[in-house]
Design brief:
The protein is an alpha+beta fold. The chain is 38% helix and 22% strand. The strands form two sheets. A seven-stranded mixed β-sheet has the order 2-1-5-4-3-8-9.
Length: 198
Amino acid sequence: MRTMGLATIAGLLSAILVGLIVVFVVNRNPPSQLVVNADAVKQFELINTEGETVTPTNYAGHWTLLFFGFTRCPDVCPTTLIDMGQTLELLGPDAEKLQPVFISVDPEWDTRERMADYMKNFDPRIDGLTGSLDQVKNAAQNYSVFFRKVALEDGGYTIDHSAALYLLNPQGVYERPYSWQDGADVLAEKLRTAMDGA
């Protein structure tokens, strides 16, 4: 009985340890709680769907809402882009203060031509940006965005990535993140409060 008891205790301790490790890995960077150093403009250089180079200076004078994803994303990305479009509608005249931007984390597939086709499915006021892998990595690192390529059994791949939206003020300085799960109604109110309170 004593041997069985020790074995049971050892098993429970192992399960607890594994559970703690899993919790740590999953929660080490919750998308809605990311902390980005906001002491300066975060530089990036990407390409829009017209083939033009885009940097933060292109959006100077506007609030900018960034979202990182990829065109073959099955759910989170299209849902978020639809919400971004609905948010613009809900903001009414205040939408003129805001520039939403979708940045691909799959530049291998998401050429500017494919981005252009994909963005036709959403509000035309949302800019789509891509670039080389190094350019995308630089932009992602500046906003603590995680992404990685994951191989699939059929020989293809998908992209694991952070799913948060990042608000920059009209000077291009990072302000705060928002959860993609907020939905258009909540996001519109949060953005209006942020833009009016500046």
